[in-house]
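Title: Comparing notes on inverse folding

I've been comparing how different people in this forum approach sequence design from structure. To keep things fair, I'm posting one structure and asking everyone to reply with a full sequence. Here's the target:
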């Protein structure tokens, strides 16, 4: 497995020095010196952290914090610098964005999965606690969080284990839509927030303007802001002292039986299920028996330790500490995120846990070649072991055969899932048009949630009496000159304006309630294109609203293609139906017979195109009788057809499904 290999490679690069007791006051600890004979007795020359060393860190000497920011404002780079500064990773380890371990994270430059790292740090800069004299060393747990709107669920999960957060804002770009969303997530979780204005090395940096925005939007005192450049290192020495000084220590009692929050889990092919936990009360030792509050099952603790930043066994974890535990869990399904793990046989109050995951986007995932179903099934099972936020149920399509209906947090999440399926498991898939969960009410007053448009029978005996669709509250930040086009875009997408204010002389903030369906595919791209890339956008779930929805079928030679059915607003059906049919005509290859392509609502045809018959002769240019060359051409043609889906008697290339996806969500 690529992930495990990367982990082992990384482990070889990591040094595990701790804190230099004799480092002079008011200078930063030099990691190299930590291995010298001057190192404190508890850490001298040791590469591995022991349980007794961890015992030296009671809650008062622990800080659990997170870094939150709008995408690309520099949180992963800042995390790297903090790991280097504390000697947790070696400087110039040659792998930027250390905590972004997934291949897809590196390729796309985004953080998808929250990661945790434990650092040891001696505060040698004067703070209200240390006053610069003989300062104690601290155990700091840094939780890196994703910045993209789809992954705010991961953000809120990480925040549950923290008492504070660094709110990173780009000094040139200023506050953006996700800065606002993340600020409120942290604020509502009662976290201490340290504003960090990053990238001050940029020529266009304007930290004073950013301070004014922070004051205006969040009432943050400008004097609290730290000015940093994660690139040049400027200002970084103030960050960890501020963490120690301004973030409270974790609550909890060392004297109570162990109780811990299960933050995340993943499957490692060598070690089995690894759970990330935050110990709230008591201590957990190797060999202990612990129970899950959710399932009631009891497990033995086989291994326990910290992420430093790789798994580092310590044999014990104490109150306030964040680390990992390996038990005999066989699948991540047993490790329910947000569950409370506690001392077996003790009666404890479960911790509050997290909001359940809400799947916003559903799509069918089918093997490009029907005979690969088992391989796809295996790949999905493996992948969902490490991404519990995807829901999976088996489904069968008459057009595409056996496959799965998957629920995702958002469209980027869906894309990332597909990319990981291809990259990590070599799976070739066809995905159907994404849809949102609608609610339909029938004449007998029964209500159903519809996650697959095909499941909504067109000529049902039951009459649909009402339908509802999910909406979101969208926050959009734009330079004021783009307000006009953005308002137009939002009203085309059936948005209702809730707020329109200016955050400074140049930028406006717009809030809209918009049906989720209208934003799931290309809303963000279009918003970016009409604002020359300047808009930033975030959304949060809102309520369901009543809507006039219809099911639109696509028929090929009179046969409905279930995988292409969509649910759509009545007013848009005609236009979208027309575009879908036009697009399909371009993508479906002409065949030996005529093909009619139709869009229909119930029995009413709303658009129609005909593709005339033809046969593409690949051997036409092949003169003479070289049989091997002819064979090669025929082989090539066969290969080309591999990624086609035979629907009835018509071959549809995979791109057609992708293109439909774009059209079905356009204006
Ligand atoms: N000039 C300058 N560039 C920086 C600084 N910090 C980060 N960058 C660059 O900004 C880009 C984004 O940085 P990341 O650390 O990946 O941003 P992020 O916020 O973690 O992004 P996500 O992981 O997608 O949420 C990278 O190209 C960094 O090299 C800085 O202080 N100055």
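Reply #1:
Here's my take.
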């Amino acid at each position: 497995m690529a992930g495990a290999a990367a982990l082992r490679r990384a482990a070889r690069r990591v040094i595990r020095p701790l804190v230099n007791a004799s480092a002079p006051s008011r200078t930063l600890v030099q990691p190299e010196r930590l291995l010298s004979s001057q190192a404190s007795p508890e850490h001298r020359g040791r590469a591995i952290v022991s349980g007794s060393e961890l015992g030296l860190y009671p809650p008062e000497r622990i800080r659990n914090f997170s870094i939150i920011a709008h995408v690309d404002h520099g949180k992963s780079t800042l995390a790297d610098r903090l790991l280097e500064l504390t000697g947790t990773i070696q400087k110039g380890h040659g792998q930027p964005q250390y905590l972004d371990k997934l291949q897809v994270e590196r390729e796309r430059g985004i953080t998808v999965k929250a990661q945790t790292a434990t650092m040891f740090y001696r505060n040698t800069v004067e703070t209200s606690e240390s006053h610069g004299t003989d300062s104690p060393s601290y155990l700091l747990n840094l939780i890196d969080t994703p910045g993209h709107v789809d992954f705010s669920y991961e953000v809120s999960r990480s925040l549950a284990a923290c008492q504070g957060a660094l709110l990173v804002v780009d000094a040139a770009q200023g506050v953006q839509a996700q800065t606002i969303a993340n600020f409120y997530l942290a604020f509502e979780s009662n976290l201490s927030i340290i504003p960090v204005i990053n990238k001050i090395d940029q020529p266009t940096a304007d930290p004073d303007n950013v301070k004014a925005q922070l004051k205006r939007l969040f009432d943050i005192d400008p004097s609290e802001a730290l000015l940093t450049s994660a690139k040049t290192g400027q200002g970084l020495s103030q960050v960890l002292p501020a963490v120690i000084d301004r973030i409270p220590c974790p609550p909890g009692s060392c004297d109570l039986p162990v109780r811990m929050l299960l933050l995340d889990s993943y499957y490692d092919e060598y070690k089995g299920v690894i759970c990330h936990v935050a110990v709230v009360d008591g201590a957990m030792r190797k060999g202990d028996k612990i129970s899950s509050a959710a399932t009631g099952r009891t497990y033995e603790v086989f291994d326990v330790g910290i992420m430093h930043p790789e798994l580092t066994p310590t044999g014990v974890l104490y109150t306030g500490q964040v680390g990992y535990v390996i038990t005999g869990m066989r699948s991540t399904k047993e490790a329910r995120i947000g569950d409370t793990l506690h001392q077996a046989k003790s009666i404890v109050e479960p911790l509050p846990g997290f909001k359940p995951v809400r799947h916003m986007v559903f799509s069918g995932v089918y093997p490009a070649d029907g005979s690969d179903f088992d391989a796809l099934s295996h790949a999905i099972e493996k992948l969902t072991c490490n991404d519990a936020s995807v829901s999976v149920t088996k489904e069968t399509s008459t057009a595409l055969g056996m496959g799965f209906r998957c629920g995702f947090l958002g469209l980027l999440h869906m894309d990332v899932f597909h990319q990981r399926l291809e990259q990590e498991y070599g799976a070739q898939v066809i995905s159907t048009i994404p849809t949102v969960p609608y609610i339909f009410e029938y004449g007998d007053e029964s209500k159903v949630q519809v996650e697959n448009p095909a499941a909504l029978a067109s000529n049902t005996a039951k009459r649909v009496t009402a339908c509802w669709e999910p909406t979101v509250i969208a926050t959009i930040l734009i330079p004021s000159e783009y307000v006009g086009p953005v308002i137009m875009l939002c009203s085309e997408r059936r948005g209702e304006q809730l707020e329109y204010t200016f955050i400074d002389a140049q930028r406006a903030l717009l809030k809209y309630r918009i049906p989720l369906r209208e934003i799931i595919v290309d809303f963000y791209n279009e918003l970016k294109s009409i604002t020359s890339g300047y808009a930033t956008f975030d959304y949060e779930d809102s309520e369901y609203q009543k809507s006039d929805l219809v099911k639109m079928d696509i028929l090929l030679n009179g046969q409905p293609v279930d995988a292409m059915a969509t649910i759509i607003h009545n007013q848009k059906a005609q236009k979208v139906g027309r575009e879908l049919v036009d697009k399909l005509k371009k993508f479906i290859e002409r065949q030996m017979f005529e093909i009619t392509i139709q869009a229909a609502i119930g029995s009413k045809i709303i658009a129609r195109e005909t593709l005339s018959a033809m046969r593409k002769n690949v051997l036409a240019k092949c003169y003479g009788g070289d049989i091997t060359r002819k064979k090669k051409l025929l082989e090539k043609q066969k290969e080309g057809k591999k990624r086609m889906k035979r629907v009835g008697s018509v071959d549809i290339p995979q791109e057609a499904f992708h293109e439909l996806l774009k059209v079905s969500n356009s204006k």
